Amino acid sequence: MYNFNDGLDFARQMDFNDELKNFKERFYIRKDVLYMDGNSLGLCSKDAEKYVYKALEDWKTYGIDIWTDENANYFLYQDKLGSMMAPLINADAEEVTLCASTTINIHQAIATFYHPTASRNKIIMDDINFPTDKYAVYSQIKLHGYNPDECLKVVKSRDGNFIYEDDVIEAMTDDVCLVLLPSALYRSSQLPDMKKLTKAAHEKGIYIGFDLCHSIGSVPHDFKDIDCDFAVWCTYKYLNGGPGSIAGLYINKKHFDMEPGLAGWQGNNKETQFDLNQEFEHARYAGGWQTGTQSILSMAPIEGSLKLFEEAGINNVRKKSLTLTAYLMYLIDTKLKKYGFSYSNPTIDERRGGHVALEHDDAIRITKAMKENKIVPDFRFPNIIRLAPIALYTSFEDVYEMVERIMKIMDNKEYENFDSNRGIVA
């Protein structure tokens, strides 16, 4: 499918032909720094900055009227941003909202969809997903009065890198009522078959939801086709919403009549919200799963970022992302393998997310040396260096230059100048 060649001229020719190349100018990138950690925290764009400043000016100008003045009108800002974000997963605008954090939204989803009985009380998860999902599920099982050690059904990976769908489906026995899985594995970049898993779960009367943190903004999803029950995600990785920016929540419209597990006044019917009745009347759309008032200053940069995605098109972003990661794997194969490097991510486009999982036995020291050489990677214990060339602000020349710098590190044994102790934040 790909026909790559070695050399700087080839990389520059790829950049010349890149339809998205001009978006890079709209991001803040430090001089000579090769930023490959957008899968952990996306860079700030000038578009995001613009809307943060607008929100600040609106606050200064309107005070309390920031919520309703026609020139500001932030009262239903989460609905506006939800409708802008919905195309990224091919969902209806009313099925998407922004609120809280990924972990709190997991709590909300489990509290809503987990209705255990004596004979059906188990939740299926995998053993290699980002652990916050398991922490939340574990505590929700306890809050429902059940023993997590008995009711949390963990499907173990065969190899520590990938989820095998048939193993998960085999675990969908009659005592299971809910499944929560990642859409992309944060270590290996694998994309499990969400449609296959959802179909199997629904055939057995099981609710299923997905954590999209490591795919949304890099991989387009088709929720009209997948038809899962719920999904959660953060907005500070590929969506470039800012450090700790507000999270996303999808509720399939067929469940709009369900009572939210965690109620709050922002989830009330908007027509009666300011009647301040003591009885909760939940809104019959994703906004009904809102709880407290959301942070305008946290949502504002997301508006700027989403406008970038509207311009670029998520399918174009995906096409370039796949080409960038395939090109990086080509360079690893041709230039870095002799130094003991390999990668543990899928090579098939349809199963690979937006990053490459570079492996080396001395990954900690190499990561430190990379940072010294103005490469920003993302280390994951014990031996993975995650590299995410982001379609909106990474060039093919950046990828080529990064590999050249890594070769210099290895040739000169620069990594030997560092210890093997990892920091608190890897």
Structural description of this entry:
The chain is an alpha/beta fold. The protein has 2 domains: 8-31 and 313-417, Aspartate Aminotransferase, domain 1; 50-311, Aspartate Aminotransferase, domain 2 (3-Layer(aba) Sandwich), CATH 3.40.640.10. 35% of the residues lie in helices and 12% in strands. It is built from 13 helices and 13 strands. It has helices spanning 8-16, 46-62, 77-85, 102-113, 132-143, 148-151, 165-170, 194-203, 223-226, 296-312, 314-336, 363-372, 396-411, and strands at residues 34-35, 96-98, 122-126, 152-155, 176-182, 207-211, 230-233, 248-251, 342-343, 356-359, 375-376, 378-380, 384-387. The strands form 3 sheets. Strands 2-8-7-6-5-3-4 form a 7-stranded mixed beta sheet, sandwiched between helices. Strand 12 (378-380) and strand 13 (384-387) form a beta hairpin. Helix 2 (46-62) packs antiparallel against helix 10 (296-312), helix 3 packs parallel to helix 10 (296-312) and helix 11 (314-336) packs parallel to helix 13. The longest helix is centred in the C-terminal third of the chain and has 23 residues, at 314-336. The mean pLDDT is 97.
Portion of residues in beta strands equals 5-15%
Main sheet? 7 strands, mixed
Q: For this structure, what is the CATH homologous superfamily of the largest domain?
A: Type I PLP-dependent aspartate aminotransferase-like (Major domain)
Predict the CATH topology of the largest domain. Answer: Aspartate Aminotransferase, domain 2
CATH class of the largest domain: Alpha Beta
Order of helices and strands: HEHHEHEHHEHEHEHEEHHEEHEEEH
Give the fraction of residues assigned to helices: 25-40%
Which strands sit side by side, in order, in the main sheet?
2-8-7-6-5-3-4
Question: How many beta strands in the DSSP annotation?
Answer: 13
Label the overall shape: globular
How many DSSP helices? Answer: 13
Instruction: Work out the count of structural domains.
Output: 2
Quote the distance from N terminus to C terminus: 35 Å
* Mean pLDDT across every amino acid position: 97
Secondary structure category = alpha/beta
Question: What is the rounded Rg?
Answer: 22 Å
Poorly predicted tracts of residues: none
* CATH architecture assignment of the largest domain: 3-Layer(aba) Sandwich
